[in-house]
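Much of what follows relies on a compact textual record of a protein's fold. Think of the row as the fold of the chain written in a discrete alphabet. An example makes this concrete, so a full record is given next.


***
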Amino acid sequence: MKHWIEWLVQLPLMRIGVIAIFAAIGAALPKDLSVRDRLMTFFVGFMAALVFGEPVRQMLSLSEAWAFGMAGILAMTGRNIAVFVIRASRDPKSFARDLMEIWRGGK
């Protein structure tokens, strides 16, 4: 039991709270989602921010002051990023063609 208490004390509860709030906002904003889709959006956004928040911040060479902002952005857009990656991995050739068309100002 002592092991679990020590583990809970080490959790960054403030960051987890901020991530949860922004994930809830990201799930509440779209008007066309069902309750199941909103829960999925919350979960995916929460996990994206929790898992990738710190590595992305370090990759972009941002200071610790940007930690909550980066976590909030990832929490709100986590579902959109996941959908983007899934669509790109399904048909990479079509994705590359669409990306080049967008890049050139076609869409």
Observations:
- The longest helix spans residues 35-59.
